[in-house]
Amino acid sequence: MLKLFYAPGSCSLASHIVLEEAGADYELVGMDTKAGDQRTPEYLAINPKGRVPALATDRGVLTETPAILAFVAQSYPAARLAPLDDPFAFAQAQAFNSYLCATVHVAHAHKHRGYRWADAPEALAELTRKVPETVAACFRLIEDEMLAGPYVLGPDYSICDAYLFTLADWLEGDGVDPRQFPKVHEHRERIRTRPAVRKVLAQEAA
User: 10 Å Cβ neighbour count for 200?
Assistant: First the structure.
């Protein structure tokens, strides 16, 4: 059985949603990152990066959201969570998810995780101040160039939609009004109504 190490409010939500959408047999292990669960020796033995998510499989542990999402899509092809039969389209999905991971999430992290890049109080303050600007710029690009509609890749729901939903749900907390991005906002609210998403949100809120 798969085992997902997750933390409510984190990017691990995307992996949780996709596992549920796939109909996977999985177990959840909740982590309290504010209490430092991710830095315990027990968890570092599972994921030396000290981050969530981590997905334990019968072949080892996978980390990094794009890798986990692709693994789930490929492991459960009947769920049709990615265009697996089209190498170019699958690469486009990977490119989108990589942008969310490497650029959008990093822009968001400057608000609460600035200590990863700076120590001086004035530098940390400047990183925080820039978050609404940099996050909004990321979502402007998604709105104008990346979101095909009605789903990220076009007519079919995919792993990209769960990931975009997860990060778009942070917009208000980052000081960004999501209504300035009509396509992203409509997408977020549509994804929120999916049965699997509603189930996962209820589980993580419990």
Answer: 23
**CB-neighbour burial class of residue 6 (10 A; exposed 0-12, middle 13-18, buried 19+):** buried
Q: Is 51 helix (H, G, I), strand (E, B) or coil?
A: coil
State how far the alpha carbon of 91 is from the alpha carbons of 4, 6, 14, 53, 82, in Å. 25, 26, 19, 22, 10
DSSP-H helix ranges across the chain: 12-22, 41-46, 65-75, 87-99, 105-112, 121-141, 159-168, 182-192, 195-205
Domain boundaries, the chain: 2-80+198-205, 87-194
pTM over 0.70: yes
Sign of the CA dihedral with 61 first, then 159, 76, and 70 last: negative
Cβ-proximal residues to 63 (8 Å cutoff; 6+ apart), any chain:
47, 49, 51, 53, 54, 55
pLDDT in tens, 38-58: 999 999 999 999 999 999 999
What is 87-194's CATH topology? Glutathione S-transferase Yfyf (Class Pi); Chain A, domain 2 (1.20.1050)
What CATH architecture is 2-80+198-205? 3-Layer(aba) Sandwich (3.40)
Neighbours of 71 (CB within 10 A): 18
**What region, left, alpha or beta, does residue 36 occupy, with left being phi > 0 and alpha being psi -120 to 50 degrees?**
left
